[in-house]
Amino acid sequence: MPAMSRGVLFTGGMRDWTATAEAYDRSFATLCDGAAARLLADLPGRDLLDVGCGTGRLAARAERAGRAVTALDADESMVESARGRLRGRVLRAALPDLPLPDASEDAISASFVLNHVDRPRAALAELRRVLRPGGRLAITVWPAGGASWSAMLGEVFEEAGAVLPPPERLSAEEDFDRSADGLAGLAREAQLEVRRACDLHWDWQVRPEDLWAGLDAGIATPGAVVRAQTPQVRARTREVFAARTAELSDLDGVMSFPVRAAYALGARPLDEEL
């Protein structure tokens, strides 16, 4: 199942995420955690704006390091979850409309945010708008090419007889190459200086029951597949999933999957006139 192929919105596009925060925090939020250390290392300074904060895991890591964080997310359940975790401000807002002044932020993290929006260029332009000259913006997206965990789920769906719903795709004029080079090109279109563009690699460790919680809640492209099935096929999918993940789990009941993400670090030109 090409859950991360070019142009497919990894998290189901603009689907309603209401009341999914707990399941997301158990499952795919732990997947995204793997990029946090690199983003924070490349965004020096005391203050941080975390756009698309989800349940606040990256922002909480920044706060533990002594940073002052403002966090934003479009979904109410994510905002409420983040507010329970963070000391700083958590606002409900969605790209490409942020309730922030021009040139007000020195450091912005947008980790796996452009995978959610249907206007990535407008979103990136808005992030640039609130960035101060000399400020840095760190961005990650899921790249083209299926991940090992995604391939495993594709095998589960095939064995269970699941019917795959049509993928949600960006329009041709909005799409971009899901790679580090493609992300860098998008940043340059937004008139950002690209300081770094590369792939990030880590191992995602997750328990089967936590991954299934995310799927059962309809999170991400595989979750949308699970939700689209009849009760009978959904039950069969759960059975096949349990058998397959038992084979992949270690003695502590944990699975490990290699992960790759596309990453770009951009900066607003220091000599730019405001």
Summary keywords:
globular, 22% strand, Rossmann fold, 274 residues, alpha/beta
What is the topology?
Elements: H1 21-26, H2 28-32, H3 36-41, E1 47-51, H4 57-64, E2 68-73, H5 76-85, E3 90-92, E4 105-111, H6 120-130, E5 131-141, H7 148-160, H8 180-189, E6 193-206, H9 208-216, H10 220-227, H11 231-248, E7 255-267
Helix pairs in contact: 7-11
Radius of gyration: 18 Å
Question: What is the typical, i.e. mean, pLDDT?
Answer: 90
Looking at the overall shape, the CATH architecture is: 3-Layer(aba) Sandwich
Main beta sheet: strand number and arrangement? 7 strands, mixed
Compressed to H and E, one letter per element, the order equals HHHEHEHEEHEHHEHHHE
Q: Please write the CATH class name.
A: Alpha Beta
Describe the structure.
The protein is of the alpha/beta class and 274 residues long. The chain has a single domain, classed as 3-Layer(aba) Sandwich (Rossmann fold). Helices cover 38% and strands 22% of the residues. Strands 3-2-1-4-5-7-6 form a 7-stranded mixed β-sheet, sandwiched between helices. Mean pLDDT is 90; it is low at 1-16.
